[in-house]
Every structure is written in C-alpha cells, then in structure tokens.
User: Fold L-rhamnose isomerase/sugar isomerase from Microbacterium invictum.
Amino acid sequence: MTTLSPDHLSVLEKQSIELPSWAFGNSGTRFRVFATEGTPRDPFEKIADAAQVHKHTALAPSVALHIPWDKVDSYDELRAHAEDHGVALGTVNSNTFQDEDFKFGALTHHDDRIRRKAIDHHFECIDIMDATGSRDLKIWLAEGSNYPGQNDMRARQDRLADSLQQIYARLTGEQRLVLEYKFFEPSFYHTDVPDWGTSYAQVAALGDKAMVCLDTGHHAPGTNIEFIVMQLLRLGKLGSFDFNSRFYADDDLIVGAADPFQLFRIIAEVIRGGGLNNPDVAFMLDQCHNIEDKIPGQIRSVLNVQEMTARALLIDHDALDAAQQANDVLAANAVLMDAFYTDVRPQLAQWRETRGLPADPMAAYAASGYQQQIAADRVGGTQAGWGA
Ligand code: PSV
Ligand code: MN
Assistant:
C-alpha cells in the first residue's frame, strides 16, 4: 500500500504535538547565545509565536511552560491569552538547574533545607498547573556528580524517592508527574536519573499517575530507542516524549533532521504499542533553535513528526506478520523499508488543502509577513533566552 487511506488520514487529523515555550526564546551553546530579531520578551509573546505554528499546521494545539522562565503575575491572564490565540497551556516543567542552592543537588540533596526548597518549587509548579489547567508536571533533574566518590549514590536515590513521594502526594485530579531521564550533562560521572530503568523504578513506586518521559536526545549513541519505547508502552509507563534530534550528544536539533529513519522506527513502535493519539502518551518537542528562525524551525519539526507518522501508518502489518512467522528476514525488513521510503509529502500537501490549511506551511508562514512584523514590533525590552 503506497497511499494513505481515509482511515490513515483521520488518524493523522487527530495528531497533536505540544511545543516548548523555550524554543521561541534565544538559545545557544555554552560558547554563545545568539539573539534573533523579533524574539519574544515575555511568555505572552512566546505563546503568540507558538500559535503561528498551530495556525499553519493544525498540529500544535498546546504549549509547555518552564518555571521560573515563564512566571507571570496572572496565570488566568496567560491562559486567556493562549485561548484567544487558539492554543492551550500544557505541561509545566520544573527547573532545579539554575539556582545557586542546587549546585550539588536538589531533590537528592543531603541538606534538608535545600531539598525542602526543591520540593517547594515543585509545589509551586503544581499551584501553577491548577491555574493553567495543565495536566502534567515534568521533572528533569540536573543533579548527579562529576567524580567517583563525590557522592553516596545510593543515599541520593533514597532521598529522591522520598522527595518524589511528597510531590506526587500533592497532585490532584487528573494531574500526572512525568520523570525524564538523561545519562549525562550537566553532571558527567553519574546522574541521579540516568536511564529509563531508574525513571521506571522511581515512578512505579509512586503509583498510576507517575510516568516516564523519554527525551530522544538523552541516550548514548547507538541506543535502540524504539526498544525502550516498546518496553515502556508494554509496561504502561510511557507518559510523554520530548522529541528532538542529535548527531552527537543532547543537541536539541529539529526532530527528524539527524536521523529520519530512527524517528520512523520510534513512531512505528508507538503505533504498535497503542500510543498514537493516546492521551496517556503526550507528544512534545524539546528543542532549541540556535541559528535558524524559531517559528519556522518549529513548523518544520511538527511536519517532520506528521510525515514520519504517515509513513509508519503505511506499514503493511499483515505482510509483516506473515514474513515474521515465516522467519523471512529479508521480506520482513522490506515491508518496513517500503513504508519508510514512501514519499507521503504530495498527498499530505493535498490533504492539508482540503482542510483549509496551506499545502506548504513553511511557505505560507514565510509569505505571511509575521516574521518581519515581530522584528519591527518587538523593539526594546529584554529578549527571552536561556534563563530569562
Ligand atoms: C534537559 O536536557 C531537558 O531535556 C529537560 O527536558 C529540560 O527541561 C529541557 O531540556 C530544557 O532545558
Ligand atoms: Mn527534555
């Protein structure tokens, strides 16, 4: 099968990908953060930019916040502003990586005062979720150590379990906690949540409302990420994705840019495991646009996810199953590759038009004049950026 059926298209129509507010601010590396004209000066402007992505693609109806970067006086006002722009406020990300007190740890710290402060920061995030209507609290911890012997890793794991328990107990209603893992950076010897197994062990101890977040950039090179996707779905613990792509480390580049085939394989496992358009499995981007324009960078990203989803939907599962049962290694592989190599772009473009969307969202955005408008309008003030 080489064309998308009406069933496939109705699956694609329901797809939604959450955007990170920080993708619209300036970012860079430890060497330099480059400013771009028109960069938002506050969370309201970030939301307005994110809404452009949704307007041109109908793929990105919500925006994740990062606290304290996106702190505002009135979350009711921010929520209304988002709604006026046709988007919703999504996941709230905590931040325990930029406070002097957290230099040697936060939720794992041996000093009770510092650990209390880190837990209280998460309570504040939950209060914000109550106001924004957000469902997910996403926790990524920068803590760990740089040198063997620096820390008692076991004691830190115990304190982490206790801290998470306190945070979990504070959730209400439909709220969830998602725990993101990362095997390095900023700590280089050990991190306290390095891998999916540790995240799984910690969230499994908490309960049903705690899930694992899989950031595609947070694995050692060569890791079979789709295997982890399969396993977490199988265990009912894949809560969310932070999509991005990487050539070397946690590069935070446009999803699907470095290795489209890996993205295809990941989404194929999501579909296989019932995770597509499943509200329990949130699709989010976690990217930075260091040198390219940010809004088109995000448009390209959601289109890449849509395109790989379309290709993965084309996998002929009957043929695949038959080949697998027959131990026909090459035939099974060919079924997958046939779907992967199908160019779905012309059909997706046509389909977009039938829905009143631009056939080419990148071109439509470029022609809209929005980029020039924000460059002209947003003069003065401090551009949002790493830490702002
Ligand atoms: C850490 O590398 C991470 O992936 C976490 O999700 C953070 O919240 C995000 O990047 C932005 O700093
Ligand atoms: Mn992430």
Remarks:
- Residues 14-313+344-377 form a domain with the TIM Barrel fold (CATH 3.20.20.150).
- The pocket of manganese (II) ion (ligand 2) is lined by residues 140, 180, 215, 242, 286 (CB under 6 Å).
- Residues 112-132 form the longest helix (21 residues).
